[in-house]
């Protein structure tokens, strides 16, 4: 019996010694990779881009006694924008300028009057709230453009006025798909004011709404 006990103790000792030797061997695991730091996205920076959409609105005639709706205008708009954003915590403030080619026209109204806007532009401030890469915002500022008025026919007369005293107000949503590519959609209400036409006391006023898709590159 003693022999069996001695043999068992000796075997356990050999197993323990082998385990201790194995623990002293160098580890075969590779080096632990350092954590990768990904900087948080920021809206701060300059950007430039393009946009396209649709516009619709009204042409009003002011003859000095009453303002009447002369016709409705609508058509395609498209152009480019450039601006700068600055992020402070969750809030984003910025300044943007845009120039738009337009095909906003009334066609010939019941009185034969035709009004068309070939281009307009705005310079606006923007205020937004950033939810990481998603940002809703409001915007407003100065607007300008041209308004062409004509009476077609045998005695056709026309005028082409530049309107520089208008204003614009609206809002939009933007999403940054990458650190540089930002897409969005925007609504603007644009009022170009009114001007006298054809050396008469009659004034033509033009205002319209615009919905457009935007794509910008942030530097």
Cα end-to-end separation: 86 Å
Q: What's the CATH C level?
A: Mainly Beta
CATH structural fold name: Porin
Please give the number of β-strands: 8
Gyration radius, in Å: 35 Å
Order of helices and strands: HEEEEEEEE
> How helical, in percent, are the residues?
10-25%
Q: At CATH's second level, what is the architecture?
A: Beta Barrel
Given as residue ranges, the uncertain stretches (5+ residues, pLDDT < 50) are 4-12
Indicate the topology.
Elements: H1 2-24, E1 45-62, E2 67-88, E3 91-108, E4 114-129, E5 134-151, E6 157-176, E7 181-196, E8 203-218
Antiparallel strand pairs: 1-2, 1-8, 2-3, 3-4, 4-5, 5-6, 6-7, 7-8
Keywords:
219 residues; mainly beta; Porin; eight-stranded antiparallel beta barrel; 8 strands; 11% helix; elongated
Textual characterization of the structure:
The chain has 219 residues and is mainly beta. It has one domain (45-218): Porin (Beta Barrel). The protein is built from one helix and eight strands, in the order H-E-E-E-E-E-E-E-E. It has one helix at 2-24; strands at 45-62, 67-88, 91-108, 114-129, 134-151, 157-176, 181-196, 203-218. It has an eight-stranded antiparallel barrel. Mean pLDDT is 83; it is low at 4-12.
